[in-house]
Amino acid sequence: MNTKIPTHCWRRLAVLFAALSIPMMAAAQNCVLCYTQAGGSGPRMIQALRSGIVILVIPPMMICIGITWMAYKKRNEFNDDSAVEPLEPDVKP
Q1: pTM of the model
Q2: What contacts 92, CB < 8 A, 6 or more positions away?
């Protein structure tokens, strides 16, 4: 009985491992200078930073909600059988 694993399986495992390890590497890349600068600033700067983050989050969130709402509203437009006119049979005299 041959228990050798094919090469395409090894490639798939390597791609899976790379895809799972990339977010870990990205999360480890914190900017120490930015962190210390924000931590050492006053409360007004921290509040401005929080407000900026909220301002940058709201437009993409609203766009996604709008697209989802439109897709939900139009979901059955092409599946509605009542909108389709029945075909008349070709009757030749």
Answers
A1: 0.42
A2: none
